[in-house]
Amino acid sequence: MNAILPFLLSAVIAHAAPANARDAQAAPAITTIPSLEVPRYMGKWYEIAKFPNRFQRDCVSNTSATYSVLPDGRVKVVNRCRQADGSEKSAEGVARQLGGPDSPKLEVRFAPAILSFIPMVWGDYWVIDLDPDYRLAAVSDRKGDYLWILSRTPTVDQAAYDALAKRIAAQGLDITKLEATPQR
């Protein structure tokens, strides 16, 4: 998903990228939501904020991810963003659930299908926070190196965002690293 939902342009880069520096802190204990209803999660999500990452460095605004269930049960992921020159950048990938049909732990791949057997081409896509209406979500990886705040709408109520940020911070993620994603 987006990584993707959450906007993962390259699972290879995301998974192989060195961990973000953490001032010698221990890695946070990332926990996911108890369960995920994949059909409810499908559709378009807008990136509201993210931890900076190198595979999105060309994206300056209007970042989104659109998810749809494939016939084999996996999820098609289409990530889009606006670049500085005004052009749109997109990447298509696939996500698969780890565990049972309600698992909030997924892996996403943007590398060619022929490379699917290589573990490094799959990047974590863990849903770590999600409101009951499936309108506002947080996605990370098992180490907390990456973080995306996603919404069904391009803007979010500040109180809802602040409450989500507080819950994420309680997991040990440094929310001061979040960068807002402009919607133009």
Describe the model.
- With 184 residues, the protein is mainly beta.
- It is built from three helices and nine strands; from the N terminus they run ααββββββββαβ.
- The protein has one domain (11-180): Calycin beta-barrel core domain (Lipocalin).
- The chain is 12% helix and 34% strand.
- It is globular.
- The model is unreliable at 1-24 (pLDDT under 50).
Summary tags:
Lipocalin, globular, 9 strands, 8-stranded antiparallel beta barrel, 184 residues, 12% helix, mainly beta, 34% strand, 3 helices, disordered N terminus
Taken as a percent bin, the fraction of beta residues is: 25-35%
Top CATH class: Mainly Beta
Tally the helices. 3
Anisotropy-based shape: globular
Helix/strand-derived class? mainly beta
Mean pLDDT: 86
- Whole-number radius of gyration? 15 Å
Distance between the first and last residues' Cα? 23 Å
CATH architecture assignment: Beta Barrel
Q: For this structure, what is the CATH homologous superfamily?
A: Calycin beta-barrel core domain
Count of DSSP E strands? Answer: 9
